[in-house]
Design brief:
- Helix content is 50%, strand content 16%.
- The protein is of the alpha/beta class.
- It folds into two domains: 48 residues; 257 residues, 2-enoyl-CoA Hydratase, Chain A, domain 1, CATH 3.90.226.10.
- Strands 1, 2, 3, 4, 5, 6, 7 and 8 form an eight-stranded mixed beta sheet that branches.
- Helix 10 packs across helix 11.
């Protein structure tokens, strides 16, 4: 059953009415098929109008929806023969970032991504997708492995940011993020980065500095969370909605600014309503991007990345 967001109250009410009518129909008490069809059309129109005009803050809520596809869904739906590889060979394993080897539509690849978890237990285990230094050092190790064996890298970004704990800072969080970003830029193999939920701060950039950056229609990607921005500018998180509008964090804004390369449409009502369709659509976009890059040499791939990131923001300059 889909959990409804605050702005979806009219949708929730309409779905409740449809479900009530279906219950009556299944019981055989009355013939309400025509009523159900009429309300389903009304629901589709309501979802289309609602999701066609979402504000930045509403998109933030959609991007954080707990029923959106998670990393395990993308791996399960797109990657065959996935073999996870653990540890940074320096300190510990970080379950906030999952990575390994597999096959994407017949081609061997290295896969990396944030795992948030679905319930309380798994969210605590994966630290809500917020990586520590050892997570980024594991990512570096796997990207270097991909470079050595000429394997494309696919990343799935979904994090509110890197973990800001004291222990993480003591173990060199900033240095680990910087080196992970540097490794992304130096790879001689194609790097396709996808922002599938939240793309927060340097914790996201460390996995998203790719040749192609693909973003879901209702995902967000920003230098800081709306709540964090509001706490700095207004000294209270109560202005998170104002901050979301100011941050230009939506896929549509970022495409105009040249920060991302492609927007992937989501099923009507968001990826959480039809996760299988969303995963397939993202897979098609990844495949097309890999096709564009496969003929490029290592030097050309590095140059492509360098030119892409040096030109960031120029698309939005008058």
């Amino acid at each position: 059953m889909v959990s409804f967001l605050e702005f979806e109250k009219p949708v929730a009410e309409l779905e409740r009415r449809i479900n009530d009518l279906r219950t009556l129909s299944d019981a055989g008490d009355v013939d309400v098929v025509d009523d159900i069809i009429r309300l389903e059309k009304k629901l589709a129109n309501l979802l289309e109008s609602t999701y066609g005009g979402l504000s930045a803050w509403q998109k933030t809520m959609v991007a954080r929806h707990p029923q959106r596809p998670h990393l395990e869904d993308y791996i399960g739906g797109l990657i065959e023969e996935f073999t996870p590889l653990a540890g940074d060979r320096g300190f510990a394993e970080d379950p906030a970032i999952i990575g390994g080897l597999g096959r994407f539509r017949g081609r061997s690849v290295v896969v990396l991504g944030n795992q948030k978890g679905r319930d309380t237990e798994s969210r605590l285990k994966h630290n809500f997708g917020m990586a520590r230094p050892e997570g980024y050092r594991k990512a570096i190790r796997l990207m270097q492995l991909a470079d050595r064996f000429n394997l494309p890298v696919i990343t799935f970004v979904d994090t509110s940011g890197a973990y800001p704990g004291i222990g993480a800072e003591e173990r060199g969080q900033a240095e680990a993020i910087a080196r992970s970003t540097q490794t992304c830029l130096q790879l001689g193999v194609p790097l396709i980065s996808t922002v599938v939920g939240e793309g927060g701060s340097g914790g996201a950039v460390a996995l998203a500095s790719g040749n192609r950056v693909i973003m879901f229609e209702h995902a967000i990607y920003s230098v800081i969370s709306p709540e964090g921005c509001a706490s700095i500018l207004w000294r209270t998180s109560d202005h998170a909605e104002d901050a979301a509008n100011a941050l230009k964090l939506t896929a549509q804004d970022l495409k105009k600014l040249g920060v991302i390369d492609r927007i992937v449409g989501e099923p009507l009502g968001g990826a959480h309503r039809q996760p299988t369709d969303a995963v397939t659509s993202l897979g098609d976009a990844i495949a097309e991007s890999l096709q564009e890059l496969q003929a490029m040499s290592a030097d050309e791939l590095r140059r492509d990345r360098r030119e892409k990131f040096l030109s960031l923001g120029s698309a939005g300059v008058a």
